[in-house]
Amino acid sequence: MSSIIKVDDVAFPTLQVPDLEKQEEFLSDFGMVRVERTDDTLYMAGHGPQPFIHVSKLGEKKFLGNTFYASSMQDLESLAHSDEFNNIEEMASPGGGFRTCGFDPDGIGVDVVFGIKPRKIEVDLNAIEFNVGGIERENFRRINQTKRFTKGAFPRIKRYAHCGLNSTDLEKSLDWYHRHLGIIASDLLKPGGEAGPLLGIFSRCDRGEKPADHHSIFFLPALSQSNGKPGLNHVSFEMVNVDDVFMGHEILAKKGYELEWGIGRHYQGSQIFDYWRSPFGQIHEHQTDGDVFDNTFPPQIVDVMLDGDPNNPEMGPSQWGPAINMETFGDERGL
């Protein structure tokens, strides 16, 4: 099935929370910086060129939706002319730009933007080389250079990476996002293989020959995750390197936030991950070192029960690190 457009990437999530001051404190500890705060809206940035990567609205706790980057103004116009998106409007948020807005089959907001002006990068986002790999000593990559991080420094966030959505119908959701935004499947999770039940879909942007993250959206079944209620499972942000993940873990633990899952390395996507609850129960993830694919890589059928220790199979395991708590991860607290 053809797509109206093919988005280039995810831009930012929009969450609704009852207290913007508490939200800002958490996101600052998480590694973000405030860009702008009004009576009802908080814009937070990472350290990359995007003017902001996280938006919080004042109100009853809720996930309002995701925003994606269009590849051109023409694409934005094409989407705006479709039945399920509105007319293009100018954005009043930092960096300006234009957007069109719609809703997915579960009523989750989907905005697509173009023309947001980037900001100047003030932090070095180049990861210092690791001295790993190869048996020959001449292959070392960091020579005559020490690696130093300031104890207690806040982690560096490059960008918004992906989100997990609890969906009432996984295939219907993927079909909708593919038709409108060009999203394609990376992994179909089916215990038992092809004939097994569909328990999740990792999906990515179709950027043609250019690499895309293994997943920009992870669709999970709302029936088993959140008692049938659709909404947010988690939002994830890419860090500069593994040191930033561990530095973030140390700060968030010291501040007394609730750890949901981590630190570990995923199977699907391969990221090193660390998941934390905000003061309002919404799960935020630090991640780094994920897989990337171009659009020639076909969808994989993944029997998740074959991952990990065959004598102690677990759903959603990590290659290393603690096991997931299936009773809490992505539950109603985060909706």
Outline the fold blueprint.
Blueprint: E1 9-17, H1 20-30, E2 33-37, E3 41-45, E4 54-58, E5 62-69, H2 73-80, E6 89-90, E7 98-103, E8 109-114, E9 157-167, H3 170-181, E10 184-189, E11 200-204, E12 212-213, E13 217-221, H4 222-225, E14 231-239, H5 242-255, E15 258-266, E16 272-277, E17 283-288, E18 292-293, E19 300-302, E20 318-320
Parallel strand pairs: 1-4, 5-8, 9-13, 10-19, 14-17
Antiparallel strand pairs: 1-5, 2-3, 3-4, 6-7, 7-8, 9-14, 10-11, 11-13, 12-18, 15-16, 15-20, 16-17
How many DSSP E strands?
20
Major β-sheet profile: 10 strands, mixed
Looking at CATH, which topology would you report? 2,3-Dihydroxybiphenyl 1,2-Dioxygenase, domain 1
Mean pLDDT: 94
**SSE string:** EHEEEEHEEEEHEEEEHEHEEEEEE
Shape: globular
Sheet with the most strands: spatial strand order: 19-10-11-13-9-14-17-16-15-20
**CATH homologous superfamily classification:** 2,3-Dihydroxybiphenyl 1,2-Dioxygenase, domain 1
CATH architecture: Roll
- Extract low-pLDDT stretches: none
- Radius of gyration (CA) equals 20 Å
Work out the strand percent.
Answer: 25-35%
Number of domains: 1
What tags apply to this protein structure?
335 residues; 10-stranded mixed beta sheet; 5 helices; globular; 8-stranded mixed beta sheet; alpha+beta
Q: How would you characterize the overall build of this protein?
A:
This protein is of the alpha+beta class. It has one domain (9-118, 157-334): 2,3-Dihydroxybiphenyl 1,2-Dioxygenase, domain 1 (Roll), CATH 3.10.180.10. Helices cover 15% and strands 34% of the residues. The chain contains 5 helices and 20 strands. The chain has helices spanning 20-30, 73-80, 170-181, 222-225, 242-255; strands at residues 9-17, 33-37, 41-45, 54-58, 62-69, 89-90, 98-103, 109-114, 157-167, 184-189, 200-204, 212-213, 217-221, 231-239, 258-266, 272-277, 283-288, 292-293, 300-302, 318-320. The strands form 3 sheets. It has a 10-stranded mixed beta sheet. The chain has an 8-stranded mixed beta sheet with strand order 2-3-4-1-5-8-7-6, covered by helices on one side. It has a two-stranded antiparallel sheet with strand order 12-18. The longest helix is centred in the last third of the chain and has 14 residues, at 242-255. The protein is globular, with a radius of gyration of 20 Å. The two termini are 31 Å apart.
